[in-house]
Write a structure and sequence with these properties.
This protein has 33 helices and 19 strands. Strands 1-2-3-4-6-5 form a six-stranded antiparallel β-sheet. It starts with a strand and ends in a 9-residue tail after the last helix. It has four domains: about 80 residues, Phosphorylase Kinase, domain 1, CATH 3.30.200.20; about 180 residues, Transferase(Phosphotransferase), domain 1; about 140 residues, 3-Layer(aba) Sandwich (Rossmann fold); about 120 residues, Tetratricopeptide repeat domain (Serine Threonine Protein Phosphatase 5, Tetratricopeptide repeat). Helix 9 packs antiparallel against helix 10, helix 17 runs parallel beside helix 19 and helix 29 packs antiparallel against helix 30. The chain has about 750 residues and is α+β, with helices and mostly antiparallel strands. The protein is globular and about 90 Å long.
Length: about 750
């Protein structure tokens, strides 16, 4: 066809040939630009199914506008010729690049982040590629990845799967159930079995691509397709760091999790993969600049690094089966982690690393492999009245050999002694000699009264829900805890936080601030410089709009205590209210990595993305919010705030029926709560219903919500901006709630 003119395209050269057709370079004589034309072969054009698949490729790719996805300009037919008009790229395919050998780590991570970002965008629109491989990834002369060939892509015409919140490829007349689609060496196990595929299918294939980029070898090999199928379905690949020992250990962990045969144990979204790769790239760049290395990032045989030991403390199993004991199980597990973090020769993992394993059946070897932990602490807890039975077991993750185990049958009064003893026994089992300072730190107790401790854990659990009724319950819990132990600094700090938030969200009576100041002073007097006390002080500054002071205090505190419960929520809120949207978006991945179960952290991030007009990023983030809130309401169905925030996220994605359902449940649970009413107004606005939104806002104000700078900045209420009643209700830029 070289030299021919098809429609208004003059063909000049052949660029490549594949199973579906031939690609040529051509000049668009109408626009005077060079493009690539992908022609379906004449024999295939006669096959209606193949023609539909060819057209579907164009529709799938043209729905995407992303710098790392090849742009589709159009699909055309001229006489009997069917062709796709595409962006002309200068460079080479990733498969050609890999043939010359493994890529350097900088290139692997740079291209990896770009590919993950492109998949995140495609998946957010319900498009799953299903044939991701190096031949379908182009690397431009400027080092930019471009995903090609959406010929096997599935467009979910329904909605993301409610259980997993990932776009699902529903079998249709073009792909029957049981059909194996894609290239064998890069297939996921579910593709190999002919099962329904979803976004996690792309993640497995992407893991295979990353493995090959970093090592120059495929993880699943064989002389025949049958042998490769068997390897994918039944055999673990050689660990990446054994194939290429110069690679960072963390990259091996990331790729191993992407190649999990059980898709529930894989990374659940391209966003998670992108975050992990970006964090590794940042850590490597930081290490290069400082000249330092970490065993979590680098493979090294230096004696100092070889001696470092790490431990993943899994959430203990709640054997009582009583939902009301979950707070105790979670609190004790997190406190044991905190105790172990006081041991200098032992690295512990953040809550965000451990949460995915809670209430899941996993082995120590699996956790160790995925997290890079040398040891795992697992256990169970059962409460009967005032007695506790705690079983704990320390396991070597490399061989799953138990190094130490113990059963404790104690009264609640002994809970701190048990935590201290577990930490001491673990140090002994790992042959770590504790310094006098470490022994003193382990022996320290937050309170001498176990009942006060129990009330504190309950209060902390309720305070995360923020609604008026839940904050009142938390207030009662903290007050009771301080009544039992007047020197309990953490309970005083919790009391101060609740008082400030009650003032900020519900009732502008300065008596709440006075109570918070008094509680903070008691906490400071009894708790010295605990991070929870710093958080209480920062909340006071936030309520009084001293944003610079709050930001300085929280940045300093989170640098040392990144897992501080609610810390990133306050930092994000201060950044949003002070209009520093870009900085808030910049820290979003760090904030989410340490949010744990405090879903409030997501709210200012979503608002900042909306305020900046980052529509596609907000859409992607809304999928993450839906996943978080759906998981939370399954665990805590009575949490009205989580439900109304889930309704908001559904509305952002246009899932209005589901949004209405969750909003109705939230209203039934908390009909007069100002927070619920305010967020219901946001949901109505996102649905385009200004009248009901205004009615809900009016009710919120009547119930105690005051005119605020937040409401005027909230992008969810943009539909009402300029409305006379809205401007009247929010006439003064006073700080308020989200």
């Amino acid at each position: 066809m070289i030299g021919k003119t098809v429609s208004h395209y003059q063909i000049s050269a052949q660029l490549g040939e594949g199973g579906m057709g031939v690609v040529y370079e051509a000049e668009d004589t109408n626009l005077g630009r060079h493009v690539a034309l992908k022609f379906l072969t004449p024999s295939m054009a006669k096959d209606e199914n193949l023609l539909q698949r060819f057209q579907r490729e164009a529709r799938a790719a043209s729905a995407l506008n992303h710098p790392n996805i090849c742009t589709i300009h159009g699909i055309e037919q001229h006489d009997s010729e069917h062709f796709i008009v595409m962006e002309l790229l200068d460079g080479e395919s990733l498969s050609d690049r890999i043939r010359r050998g493994a890529l350097d780590i900088e290139t692997v991570l740079t291209l990896g982040v770009q590919i993950a970002d492109a998949l995140e965008s495609a998946h957010s629109k319900g498009i799953v590629h299903r044939d991701l491989k190096p031949a379908n990834i182009f690397v431009t002369s400027r080092g930019q990845a471009k995903i090609l060939d959406f010929g096997l892509a599935k467009i979910d015409q329904k909605k993301p799967d409610a259980a997993s919140n990932v776009p699902t490829a529903i079998a249709d007349h073009l792909t029957s159930a049981g059909a194996t689609m894609g290239t064998v060496a890069y297939m996921s196990p579910e593709q190999a079995r002919g099962e329904v595929t979803d976004a996690r299918t792309d993640i497995f294939s992407f893991g295979t691509v990353l493995y090959q980029m970093a090592s120059g070898h495929l993880p699943f090999q064989g002389d025949t397709s049958a042998v490769v199928f068997d390897a994918i379905l039944n055999r673990d690949p050689t660990p990446l760091n054994e194939v290429n020992p110069s690679l960072p250990v963390e990259l091996g962990r990331i790729v191993a999790q992407m190649l999990e045969r059980d898709r529930d144990l894989r990374f659940q979204s391209a966003t998670e993969v992108k975050t992990a790769l970006k964090r590794l790239k940042r850590d490597l760049d930081s290490g290069r600049h400082s000249g330092e290395t970490s065993s979590a990032v680098h493979n090294t045989s230096s004696p100092q690094v070889a001696k470092e030991q790490s431990i993943a403390v899994l959430y203990f199993e709640n054997l009582s089966g009583m939902k009301e004991d979950e707070y105790l199980r979670d609190g004790i597990t997190e406190d044991i982690t905190t105790e172990l973090s006081k041991i200098g020769g032992l690295r512990t993992f953040f809550r965000a690393n451990i949460l995915p394993y809670r209430d899941k059946s996993v082995t120590a070897g699996q956790v160790g492999k995925e997290l890079g932990a040398s040891h795992v602490l697992a256990g169970s807890l059962r409460r009967i009245g005032n007695r506790l039975r705690i079983n704990a077991q320390l396991i070597d993750a490399t061989n799953e050999f138990p190094l130490w185990s113990e059963r404790y049958d104690r009264e609640m009064e002994d809970v701190f002694a048990v935590q201290d003893e577990i930490a001491q026994k673990i140090a002994s089992a790992l042959r770590i000699t504790l310094s006098p300072q470490e022994q003193e730190a382990l022996a320290a107790k937050p309170t001498e009264n176990p009942h006060a401790y129990d009330l504190y854990l309950r209060g902390r659990n309720y305070a995360r829900r923020v609604s008026r009724q839940d904050l009142q319950v938390a207030l009662q819990m903290f007050e009771s805890a301080t009544a039992l132990d007047g020197d309990f600094a953490l309970a005083h700090a919790g009391l101060a936080n609740v008082c400030v938030q009650h003032f900020y969200y519900f009732e502008r009576d300065h008596r709440w601030i006075d109570r918070a100041v008094a509680a903070t002073e008691k906490a400071r007097r009894n708790g010295s410089d605990a991070p929870e006390v710093r958080l209480a002080e920062a909340w006071l500054g936030f309520a009084e709009k001293r944003y610079a002071e709050v930001l300085d205090k929280m940045r300093t505190t989170l640098k040392k205590y990144p897992d501080l419960d609610g810390g990133y929520y306050l930092l994000g809120s201060a950044l949003f209210e002070s209009g520093q949207y870009h900085e808030l978006v910049d820290i979003m991945e760090d904030a989410l990595a340490h949010a744990g179960e405090n879903y409030n952290t997501m709210i200012p991030i979503a608002n900042a993305l909306g305020a900046l007009g980052k529509t596609e990023a907000l859409n992607n983030f809304s999928h993450r919010m839906v996943a978080t809130f759906e998981a939370h309401v399954r665990k805590v169905p009575e949490d009205a705030r989580a439900r109304v925030l889930l309704a908001n996220a559904y509305s952002t994605l246009g899932r209005f029926e589901e949004a209405k359902r969750e909003a109705d449940i939230a209203m039934a649970l908390r009909p007069d709560d100002t927070m619920i009413l305010y967020n219901i107004a946001c949901v109505f606005c996102l649905m385009g219903n200004a009248k009901d939104a205004m009615n809900s806002l009016r009710k919120a104000c009547d119930a105690g919500y005051s005119a605020t700078a937040w409401a005027r900045q909230d992008p969810d209420l943009a539909l009402l901006h300029g409305d006379p009643e809205f401007e009247s209700l929010f006439a003064t830029p006073e700080a308020s709630a989200a």
